Amino acid sequence: MTQRGRPRSSRTSRRPRTGPPGRGEGLPGSDAQTLAIPPEGIRLNRYMARAGVCSRRKADALIAEGRVKVNGRPATVGQTVYEHDEVEVGGRVISPRPYVYILLNKPDDVITTVQDERSRRTVMDLVTLPDDEKAALFPVGRLDRHTLGVLLLTNDGELAHRLMHPRYAVEKLYRVRTREPIRPHELDALRRGVDLDDGPARADRVAYLHPPDHHEIGLMLHEGRNRQVRRMLEALGHEVVELERVQYAGLTTEGLRRGKWRRLEPHEIRRLRRLVKLT
Ligand code: URA
Questions:
Q1: Could you tell me if 36 and 97 are in contact, meaning their C-beta atoms sit under 8 angstroms apart?
Q2: pTM, 2 dp
Q3: Best CATH choice for the domain 101-275 from the list 3.30.2350.10, 2.30.42.10, 3.40.50.1480, 3.30.450.20
Q4: Given 3.30.70.20, 1.10.260.40, 3.10.290.10, 3.40.50.150, which CATH number is that of 22-97?
């Protein structure tokens, strides 16, 4: 049984309503960082797992055994629950952990992972949040150890999954600096596509950043394959000496110094959710 549960009597205002919130209410707004479940609700078994009660499979078993109630009534397997519903397991009210959305300006020489078995510095070391908020946090995709810039971290598995899924073709803009100048016909090659081990890759957009200097380009991709930018440049014989993700799904590091993080604003969370059709 969860340690996070609380006796039902401790709840001061019980809201027995069930069903999705009405138009405009309960949407991620000023309290978006504390919303525990999305406006469209979540499956009860997932709610229980996110409250730390048990796995989703075990949750279904508990529901089938009649040990779970929603707003005082016996729950059913597959039931959807919403932000204001009250869920009891074995007589104790449970609550899922709130969602957390973090934007980090990743510095050099930091590994994008939750834990590194070689004890190198990870992006998690830079995000100074209380342990309970940090518990289920993970990076959305990865940046190489020496890549700088925009990195999202969250505990919202559904949003993260969709942001990384090729179907949603989320745009990423990179600033790429090479040792040797990139010639105009090589920019065309990037636009047309270059052959990589795992198939052809092409830039959606590419341009010099500071003409007439040809060492630095902006390169837009909607894919997110491993080391994709470095490999595209290597395919043309170029060594990348600096790589920065300057934009991810429209988010930038503007106003955020290297190595620093901030929480996403409610309007930014809403925009991300719309982008991947989660509303
Ligand atoms: N492409 C790369 O080569 N590296 C990154 O970190 C991100 C995109």
A1: yes
A2: 0.79
A3: 3.30.2350.10
A4: 3.10.290.10
Out of 174, 190, 225, 247, mutate this one to test ligand 1's pocket (max ligand atoms within 8 Å of CB): namely 174
Alpha-carbon distance values, 53 to 8, 45, 49, 272 (Å): 16, 10, 6, 29
Q: Hey, whose CA ends up nearest to atom 2 of ligand 1?
A: 227
* Ranges 10-19, 87-96, 142-151, 263-272: which has the least confidence: 10-19
* Over residues 265-272, mean pLDDT: 95
Ligand 1 centroid – CA 146 distance (Å) = 9
Q: What is the mean pLDDT of residues 231-252?
A: 98
pLDDT at 132: 80
Name every residue whose Cβ is closer than 8 Å to that of residue 25 and which is 6 or more positions away in sequence. none
